[in-house]
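Before a colleague's protein record goes any further, I have to sign it off. Thanks in advance; the entry in question is below:
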Amino acid sequence: MKKLVVFLLAGILTLNICGCGSAGSSEKTETKEETAEAAEESKAEEAPAKTEEPAETEAPAPTDTPTPEPTPTPEPTPTPEPDPGPVGVWKLCEMTTDGETVGKDKIEELYENNTIVYIDIKEDGTFFFSFGGQDVSGTWDEKEFVVEDEPALYKVEDGLFYLMDEEGTTEYRFEPTDMEFVYSVLGVEGGILDEDAKYTTDPVTILDTDDAVITVTGYEASPKGLAVNVHCENKSDKALYFTVSGSVVNRYVIDPQWAVKIEGGETMDSAIKYAPEVLKDCGITTADEIIFQTSIADSDTYTFLAENVEYTVYPTGKSASDIVPAPRMTNEDEGICMDNEDLMFVILDEGDNDLGYAYDCYFENRTDKPMTITWHSVTLNDIEATAFFAVEMPAGCRGYDDAVILTSELEEMGIEKPITKLGFALQVYVKEDDGSNTKLYDNSFTVTP
């Protein structure tokens, strides 16, 4: 492997201090003065003593002896500021791979199309690198960056950060930026997650059966949301689906929509990802509690080998009693359908979405049992329609979801906009300890804008 030249992280300041000649002149003047004084003393000693008064004589003219100029004091050498090294946020500005260079203009086109390439280097010796949708993290020291035991060399020079492979075939050049720029490229607001929050690195197994194992290995917070890294093992001899069938973060129901297929006897590393906009809606800045419900199914028959296996993790070291859900979103035009000791149900807003016409809902399970909420007997403008809405949530949890009437349904039933009246029945069940379901409510509501 080729050796790379070692680069200095900061330039060396060279100072030239003049004035040696002035110092020498001062010494010569001092010598001349001493010689004159010695001569005067010698004359005084050699002169004979006289008894008579000496005749008046004119005083000798003073000798013009030049007064030496003071030696100039050299200016103090400035103390260079400590070199911060590579710590900070850097965005890609150029890159070279196998002799081909991608210039700054092309990189800027990526940013204009909401694709970000940046590296966030922390003082604690860790970093997060996002490149074209691929996110990696690792460690760094004064010599190199390391990702999964693969080292890369680096330098800071002329205000740029360089990241290079050991063979010298690839070089990334970065310029300073900040997280506000990263957020703007991604089209999200800043402050969604506390990216400096300390998450545990201790692995925890959240599912372990005769057929499969799922182990959480770490957590990563970034502008792209929260990633929970997992290691999955298929212990059977056939292909299996691994899924998160339910999830709650800080008492808010959030579906990460994670599923992977793993062949028999194989393992896979993956990431369960929570979208930044969803975390923001739920007021989540750190994931202090995550409830996972995981399932394993045969990939051929879709038969469950394990279903809704629940496990709770506390990534920041807190306990269940420490978790306080963030306040819900509000809307001045919202309609509160139910607000009692068992349930809160609110229609926050309504309007078109990609699937059809949607009602944005907030719901809160105030019981100590798992709850299921569904809609039925739906009408729009007094015309019957079918709305897709069904949520399940653990005890004491809450969340947001949309009740959607598909565009095809609106067209088929001849429902025209504007929608001026919604009718529906809200059906609520709780699950008892023996597994049976008890109906709590089946109430009808009418909502107008």
About this structure: Residues 20-46 form the longest helix (27 residues).
